[in-house]
Amino acid sequence: MRIERMTIKNFRVFRDVTIERIPPLAFFVGANGSGKSTFFDVFGFLRDALQHNVSVAVSRRGGMKELRSREQDGGDIFLEIKFREEAEGPLVTYQISVAEQEGRVSVAHEALKYRRGQYGQPWNFLNFQHGEGYAVTNEAEYGVPEAEMNREFQKLDSPDILAIKGLGQFERFKVVSAFRRLIERWHLSDFHIHAARPSQEDGYAEHLSPQGDNLPLVARFLYERHPEVFRRILERMKQRIPGVERVEAANTVDGRLVLRFQDGAFRDPFLSRHVSDGTIKMFAYLVLLHDPLPHPLLCVEEPENQLYPMLMRELAEEFRDYARRGGQVMISTHSPELLDAAKVEEVFGFEKKEGFTKVFRVKDNAQVRSLLAEGDTLGALWGQGLLWRSA
Ligand SMILES: Nc1ncnc2c1ncn2[C@@H]1O[C@H](COP(=O)(O)OP(=O)(O)O)[C@@H](O)[C@H]1O
Ligand SMILES: [Mg+2]
Fold first, then answer.
1. Tens of pLDDT along 169-209?
2. Is the pTM of the predicted complex or chain greater than 0.85?
3. What is the 66 CA–ligand 1 centroid distance (Å)?
4. Cα(368) to centroid of ligand 2, in Å?
5. Mutate which of 13, 14, 64 to test ligand 1's pocket (most atoms within 8 Å of Cβ)?
6. Structural domain boundaries of the chain?
7. How do residues 268-286 score in pLDDT, each as one tens digit?
8. Fold of 2-186
9. Do 325 and 294 contact (CB within 8 A), yes or no?
């Protein structure tokens, strides 16, 4: 599953922006306030809309007035995501427009389409307006002949529900369930070191939480249920953090769970609260990136914070491996060292001008291309502010 292109209109700082040719691993650079976190929140918005409805997704973000781009005469919010479920599969387009009428938020339009065969017209498999529309109900695979497709008119319970949520038969519709899974299992990593450090109420967790506060629980889960994964994580820890021999999740007498880090030089392990920020953060990233069930899309906020700059190259390789195993990765960063480990076609610049942001591929900037050809590095060009300046 891979998103290749996105268009965002009237969503905060993005009045009208298209991001094209998004690779499996992408790095986003730009000044503070240029919209990197807002871009990630497009997925948060869609997930809230899918889990609840668009009214909830809008009100969690301060209402239409806050969410719409400022001073743009109140148009609809428009989001378009183009993705492929498999590398050779068709390019699928999902579109949604969100409007407000007389104080009520609704889905003005929602569509899902793709081309059948190489030359055909894009075909609407789902097309809804304000809670009414049609869906093809027997497209279990991509290949049902056109004459045999059933278009069924439907009315949703409410105009603020997404059709991809509201229609039970889509459980069988491969492309819709793939898209739903992408949104439902999208993960934002915004790791807060203070949250991961203290001990944790004993309990159970299979996946790392966005802020990393259940790290001891996930470590124990991996240790007990996926020992080979845990062993791999420890090997990487040993390579990357000098002195770390072993990490374990241990119970305290008062029924809590703590992480203990064993340094080869000492007999007794250190409790996580006495270990460096970087050690814990590297361990947390390894736990996140070696999750036996990877997220289809992983967004990471500034992974460089608290980490030793020399670790950035290895961290970039960990992200690239994750992307290779099928999970797409998008990273916001201010780290020249991390960018030095990126490929130029993986880097996107966020440039804010007169209140609104444009996003472009750094590779399309001729000046950057020629400076790189002369031996400059992406990190050095980032330092000169050249990566978020359109050509
Ligand atoms: N409705 C809106 N219209 C225009 N700009 C907005 C709107 N809501 C928020 N913003 C702006 O969007 C920016 C948000 O940036 P953010 O995504 O946090 O950037 P970054 O993560 O790159 O630092 C801020 O500069 C804020 O002023
Ligand atoms: Mg941010």
1. 666 677 888 899 999 999 999 987 777 767 778 888 999 99
2. yes
3. 10
4. 24
5. 13
6. 2-186, 188-342
7. 887 777 788 888 899 999 9
8. Rossmann fold (3.40.50)
9. yes
